[in-house]
Write a structure and sequence with these properties.
Blueprint: H1 2-24, H2 30-36, H3 43-71, H4 75-98, H5 102-129, H6 134-162, H7 166-182, H8 197-205, H9 211-239, H10 243-259, H11 261-271, H12 274-293, H13 297-325, H14 331-360, H15 362-387
Length: 399
């Protein structure tokens, strides 16, 4: 039984990993990609290219989760999401040959995002369905996310220097592989009594305590969105690196973020969520500010490693707090809601970071995003202490 759970955990982590590699392949060379797709150069077209996908993430994250909770099925929806996402990447790559405008690119990005968030969110939910500790399972999700982002940033940067459209083809191939792997994973959805998606979302709305991890998820993902767009542009402008070099700098963040997720997620099972979430967020925000202040490339690179370490302390504990609060029958919708707020955070990172960087400069943008992370830790510390298991609080999961 334990061996089976480990095998399922590995398979699901590989699915999450594949989705993230596919997504991040486009980030380091996004300026080159959008130009090849018919947009003008500069930060703004790349910003809207990323925003279109995450707007769809916001719209559909909880919908996928509620449908899966209501039907008692997750695997067919993961398959649909992955294959739909793959088709959208191929359609976007075909835009230049079809002579379509950049508006079509943005529309296809939104359609692809609506599919891809299903594969991503539900594969994480399937990890949460497994026994073995919420921190451990969310740590497995986190390490998959981090390693996927690390590999995607390096390989995507290299592909973009060869052919700006190559990351699109690579992403499509990866999502087809994700679908093939998902097809052989058992569908072990907990709970016997099913309700309609609307009823599940209504019950979820009566759990205001979920607002605490959702708020942290929003700000944490805002920092990730910030680095994906503004961080890449900053490294290229301030230090003269190309897409591959920017990808390597992102990987310095994502690699420690990945490899430490599982042990730090397990640590939160033992010591409680308070210290990883609150103390980790304080440190995370301050180090982000330090990256923007770094006067040299080597120092900025070293600080990116530290950003990854702090992020690895926060992320799995925050996701685990969601599964602590939500009962099994509402877990898909709860994690869908978490991903919805996370996607809103990505949008905020793109928009706030992009606008701040273009209007008042990179340093102000780093200050805004980094201090937002510090602020949520200070404001929500008491709420986390009240909810977090192992810190004197209890979590109510009864209807």
């Amino acid at each position: 039984m334990a061996h089976s759970a480990r095998r399922e955990r590995l398979s699901l982590a590989l699915i999450v990993w594949g989705v993230l590699v596919a997504q991040v392949l486009l980030y380091p060379g996004v300026e080159d990609v959008v130009v090849a797709l018919g947009a003008a150069g500069g930060l703004a077209p790349g910003m809207w290219f990323l925003v279109a996908e995450f707007a769809a993430f916001v719209a559909f994250a909880s919908v996928w989760g509620a449908i899966s909770d209501a039907t008692g099925r997750r695997v067919p929806l993961v398959l649909l999401g992955a294959l739909g996402g793959a088709a959208s990447y191929l359609a976007i790559a075909a835009v230049p040959t079809l002579g379509l405008s950049f508006a079509w690119v943005l529309t296809l990005r939104a359609v692809g995002g609506a599919f891809t968030i299903g594969a991503f969110s539900l594969s994480i939910t399937m990890l949460a369905d497994l026994a073995g500790g919420n921190g451990r399972n969310m740590g497995a999700a986190g390490i998959a996310i981090g390693l996927g982002a690390a590999l995607g940033s390096v390989v995507g940067g290299r592909l973009a220097t060869i052919d700006p459209l190559a990351p699109l083809y690579g992403a499509a191939a990866l999502l087809v592989g994700v679908a093939a792997l998902a097809a052989v994973v058992p569908d072990n959805v907990p709970g016997e009594v099913r309700a309609s998606p609307g009823a599940i979302l209504a019950r979820l709305s009566r759990r205001p305590e979920l607002g605490v991890p959702f708020a942290f998820g929003f700000v944490d993902r805002m920092t990730a969105g910030f680095f994906a767009l503004v961080g890449v542009a900053y490294f290229r402008d301030a230090f003269g690196v190309d897409a591959f070099g920017a990808g390597l700098l992102l990987a310095l963040f994502f690699f420690p973020f990945a490899v430490l997720q599982y042990p730090l997620g397990s640590l939160s099972d033992r010591v409680g969520r308070f210290a990883p979430v609150v103390v980790g967020s304080l440190a995370y925000g301050l180090v982000i500010v330090a990256v923007g202040l770094a006067p040299s490339l080597p120092l900025a690179a070293g600080l990116m490693v530290l950003v990854g370490v702090c992020g690895a302390l926060v992320a799995p504990a925050t996701m685990a707090l969601v599964t602590d609060v939500a009962p099994p029958g509402e877990r898909g919708a709860a994690l869908g809601g978490f991903n919805l707020f996370g996607s809103l955070g990505f949008l905020a990172g793109f928009l706030i970071g992009g606008v701040a960087a273009t209007r008042v400069g990179y340093l102000t943008a780093f200050l805004v995003v980094g201090l937002a992370e510090v602020a949520i830790a200070v404001v929500a510390a008491r709420a986390v202490r009240r909810l977090a298991p192992g810190t004197g609080g209890t979590v109510a999961t009864a209807d």
